[in-house]
Queue: 3 jobs
Job 1
Amino acid sequence: MNQRAYVEQIMGLPISLHVRGEDPDGPEVRLGAEAVFAELRRFDAMFSPYRDDSDLARFERGERPDDPLFAEMLALCDEARARTGGRFDPRGLPDPRTGTPRFDPSGLVKGWAVERSAAHLRKLRRYSWCLNAGGDVLVHAEEDHPAWRVGIEHPDDPARLLQVIERRTGAVATSGTAHRGAHIVDPATGQPATAVQAVTVTGPQLLWADVYATAAAAAGPRSLEWLGTLDDHAALLVSASGLVQCTEAWPAP
């Protein structure tokens, strides 16, 4: 079986696509990869909190973007706030450049963008693929192909792995302080969340796995009990003290 990796820098992070199959360098796969990256660039242009010309920036200035995707994002943010009991809330978050409060849906947009862009890969036949956006991963393995092995970084040392899990389909999302410091805000206090080093959530969709991981990182270690109530999801949580805990559904090492 052959494998090919495609990598581009989008949304300020490396996004990699690994494809397995007979001809992962062929025109069908190349077109699929190009379509994935093009859609991710579109999302970046619309929702980047770092760009003054993004639709998000225009929304913050009081304009109403025409693209129906923007309205869909607003609706998803409301749904995410409801699903998480307010643990995820994009309102009043600090601007990454100035620190002033603003609406920032980044904790939802990346997973949603990757999920949507993967539709181009689902059109491929007889190919397995792994789409990795800065550590948030979406995978598909054909029936006669091996499962993908996804490493869970140790938050104290990214060169080490806490665990390796196997996934044939679905998502693995991680939120925490390892790479960007205390950038997640607890909506209940308005302060940076520091009680959790990392939360990894697995589930069928990257959109919700990412939202749930971000929400749990914001709310702290007690959110593990809430994570355990989510159907079709499993979670691993590392507290600030280094204590590693997981929900009952998390796969044994």
Job 2
Amino acid sequence: MKAPAFSYARPKHLADVLALLEKHGDEARLLAGGQTLLATLNMRLSEPALLIDMQSVQELKGLVVAGDCLRIGAMVTHSEIEASPLVARHAPLLARAAPHIAHRAIRNLGTFGGSMAYGDPAAEWPACMLALDGTVIARSSQGERRIAAVDFFTGLYTTALAVNEVIVACEVPLAGATHRFAFDELVRRHGDYAVVGLAASAQCNDGVLDQVRLAWIGVGSMPMRSTATERVVQGQRLSPSLMVEAQKALRSELQPEADLTHSVESKRHLAAVLLKRLLTTLHQATPPSLSDRHAPVA
């Protein structure tokens, strides 16, 4: 199918994007990498009056260390994150998740901000933001708003963004010496959406896991954490009995929906498998390299 007719704008400044959003409201759509929007246009699932292309807005690009956070511009591509030494050093969970995203051609075009705005429960970045306790920075003509990732996703493909707001960047805390990270997902073929995926972070002090965050992919109507399971593991040393208890809590907590190839019970089982793998990784992993944390920022 062909996309419906629409007007097109390619502003060079964020202020112009915000002015267009304020004027056109829900009749406008923002074009970032286009990996989801263009498909929905061609299938007539979206019929905007105006398409606002943000490729020329330099204010939305760039990866920088800002205080105690890594700031990721909304228009930073998946491939840029995958290849960035700053990400590998300061947010290794993102570096580990990036190669799992679709295929190279999509990673070259798709953007971090676009993925967050779409809020796909099967996508990697939303789960990583939950696991890292990140912050979404949104702006409108009325000003800037900081939204915790845990409050950002509100339902199936819906977020806390207002109609006249645009994501300008996301921030994640810099990895410290005691932080541990793990990521994995189970797929039928490389590049497919995950049947089940898990992004995990924690601090590990003398074998005790603290500040555990377990964020799931593909097990609900929106990106989600298993907070009851986190509480079971919190402040504990990993042991066979603790693993059994954590898996039991997870099976009780998760309420996945069946898909075309996997039943609810199958998804619960696979989630428990991932939980065991990643908790073991968190407990055994070496800390991220911090030797050049204060190196000049590109």
Job 3
Amino acid sequence: MLASVRDLAEARVVLDAGVDLIDLKNPADGALGALPVDVIRAVVDFVAGRTISSATAGNLDPDASELQAAMARIAATGVDYVKAGLFPRGWADGGRGYIEVFDCLNGLQPLPGVRRIAVLFADLAPPLELVDAVAEAGFDGVMVDTALKQGRSLCDVASSGWLADFVARAHGRSLMCGLAGSLRMEHIDALALQAPDYLGFRGALCVGRERGSELDSEAVRRVRQRLRAIEHDAVV
């Protein structure tokens, strides 16, 4: 279970609930809004290795130098994973030019000692060949999310067949694989059947299921308990 948080207080809530991955981002700034580095560093220091941490590099155009600099800045906080969004240029206005995204990946350099996760966006029609490009660029993982936070979930914009192909392709390239995008409790069982490495949540964990609201500790526990039950059933 990945839980996205925006500050130290929320990190305490999800750590108490036993989440597997604390993800730091600013939900008030789109899909992958970056938090100030001092906030990220404070959470990393608080977590102190008790669970895995990740942080987003921001909502950036496919420019290798800009993305490289943003990832390096976030990596300096000591977070375990840095997440980089693969947005096609002009995506907010309907642009879907993925050639620039492939070029951007080719222009990225490894960050010594830093693990990286690339984020694709199902509602922006990403080609699955991007998964191969992510692997070839040396990333450690790939996940799919939604870019347009307008009430539609991952399950509304991606078919089960597409998600199965995405997970299989990621695992075939030895990439850690995650699924996220306005997920709710009712999506968990079906998405767990796709066998990703983790499912990511924000809105479902918040008061009123609004991603910009504060976290609801009971909602966090309910989601964690459901995922644990699925894990138990799979083992049995």
